[in-house]
Specification:
Number of strands: 3
Radius of gyration: 20 Å
Strand order of the largest sheet: 1-3-2
Number of helices: 8
Distance between the termini: 31 Å
Shape: elongated
């Protein structure tokens, strides 16, 4: 039995929401299957599902669930946990998944900044390409500082809006 059937929700309405939100995530660049799995997890009251539950809800294979969850775990959008008293894993989305996903991009930004610094050096700071690289580097350095400040403002706002964690 799916959660929507057990909770009195309209299963068809939940399914439409999941597919609609997943389509928005795909349009923003997320692969289709991870987008569907993420939307299904996000829309569940517990914020967690087993592979079998996700497969049943989305009508997808265990392999499709596994690939989607692997992507989502790598991007810090979901976590894996053991079901109590079982060997089965549950996949969970947390309330702060957007915060985690964004702040974990810091590592990627640092790598890009390093590569761009090398590019400026290799191309020459006084060449048109070197100047473009330097501007791109400055942009990412600016974004990195802004993200840190924005995340601090979010923590304060979240606590005011939803209370302490």
């Amino acid at each position: 039995m799916t959660e929507s059937a057990g909770s009195g929700r309209d299963a068809e309405a939940v399914s439409k929401f999941v597919e609609s939100f997943a389509a928005q995530l795909v349009e923003a660049g997320m692969p289709r299957m991870p987008a569907r799995v993420f939307a299904a997890l996000l829309s569940s009251d517990e914020g967690a599902r087993t592979s079998a539950e996700l497969g049943e809800q989305l009508r997808i294979s265990p392999a499709a669930v596994s690939g989607a969850v692997r992507y989502l775990a790598q991007t810090h959008m979901v976590s894996r946990e053991r079901e109590p008293g079982s060997r089965r894993e549950r996949y969970r989305v947390h309330g702060d998944q957007w915060y985690e996903a964004l702040t974990n991009r810091e590592t990627v930004l640092k790598r890009w900044e390093g590569a761009l610094r090398e590019g400026v050096t290799s191309l020459g700071a006084d060449t048109p390409a070197g100047r473009r690289m330097a501007e791109t580097l400055a942009f990412f350095e600016f974004v990195e500082v802004e993200i840190v400040q924005m995340m601090e403002r979010w923590r304060v706002h979240r606590e005011k809006t939803f209370g302490p964690e």
